[in-house]
Design goal:
291 residues; alpha/beta; D-Maltodextrin-Binding Protein, domain 2; seven-stranded mixed sheet; elongated; DNA-binding transcription factor activity; LysR_HTH_N
């Protein structure tokens, strides 16, 4: 029995049409017919009824279909596991993460984690924050890292890190006593809604104290930082997300005044906590303390 025959049978069973099967598999119709005939000969039973150009699954075909799918799934999983073994991996960890985390705290933590755990293959899927809960819930990710609580109630959600949110502006030559909250909110536009959690409450508080503040919505954090660097505005950003830019004097922290900045939380989401997920979570908790 040839794996190619089984793959052809599964697609042919889906369409019950050899022409469509040939198109999907990039084969000729005679090749499709030959695969099916050889599989039927090997099984000593007809899998399709043929009436003119019409083909339909027989009862034997319906009965064999789940077995064929299972054989293909095990075959492909075996190839994947063997490829991982050739690369030195024997375990796998799939992480779904928000862009704000993937571009800030995750890279350095991940580098040290992979150095310490070389046999774990790490796969990173970067998704919007509100999509991560569903990714974990559906079993497509072993754990999720997000800045907001998920709407799903049947998964585990724990805070692994909290950090201050700071007001950030362009690094310009201003006298120290002029570089404060009041002056920058008058001078620059306030870039908002680049974080999924705190902006609605924060913006309401800002407008109470500075009713004439001008705003600009930018829904991507990396773009926000570039806009600030170019002098297009200022924004409230979690401290770890601008740590490197402040160190390099590309951006500047503005001291607070009337506004009490919020905090930003990082949540870890799991449904069934695998050994690999537990290992990563514990490592993450310790590593984030020294960043």
């Amino acid at each position: 029995m040839d794996i190619k025959w089984l793959k052809t049978f599964i697609i042919a069973a889906k369409y019950e049409n050899f022409r469509k099967t040939a198109e999907e598999l990039f084969l000729t119709q005679p090749a499709i017919t030959k695969h099916i005939k050889r599989l039927e000969d090997d099984l000593h039973i007809h899998l399709f009824d043929r009436v003119g150009k019409t083909v339909t699954l027989t009862s034997a075909g319906h009965h064999f279909l789940p077995y064929a799918k299972n054989i293909i799934a095990k075959y492909e999983q075996g190839l994947e596991d063997f490829e991982l073994w050739k690369q030195g991996y024997n375990r796998k960890l799939v992480i779904a993460t928000a862009p704000q985390i993937a571009s800030s705290i995750l890279p350095s933590i991940l580098r040290f984690f992979m150095e310490k755990n070389p046999h774990i293959e790490v796969i990173i899927n970067v998704l919007k924050s509100y999509e991560i809960g569903e990714e974990v819930n559906a079993g497509r990710a072993d754990l999720g890292l997000t800045r907001i609580r998920p709407i799903q109630t049947n998964i585990n959600c724990n805070i692994v890190h909290e950090e201050p949110v700071i007001l950030v502006g362009p690094n310009v030559d201003l006298i120290g006593d002029r570089l404060d909250e009041s002056n920058v909110l008058k001078k620059y536009r306030l870039i908002t809604h680049n974080h999924p959690d705190y902006w609605d409450t924060l913006l309401g508080d800002i407008k109470k104290h500075y009713p004439n503040v001008r705003t600009m919505v930018v829904n991507q954090m990396e773009i926000t930082k570039k806009f600030i660097e170019e002098g297009l505005g200022i924004s409230y950003i979690p401290s770890t997300m601008v740590r490197d830019e402040i160190r390099k004097n590309q951006l500047m922290e503005i001291r607070p005044g009337r506004i009490i900045p919020p905090t930003s939380s990082t949540y870890v989401l799991t449904k069934v906590e695998t050994k690999e997920a537990s290992t990563f979570i514990e490592f993450f908790k310790e590593a984030i303390k020294i960043l």
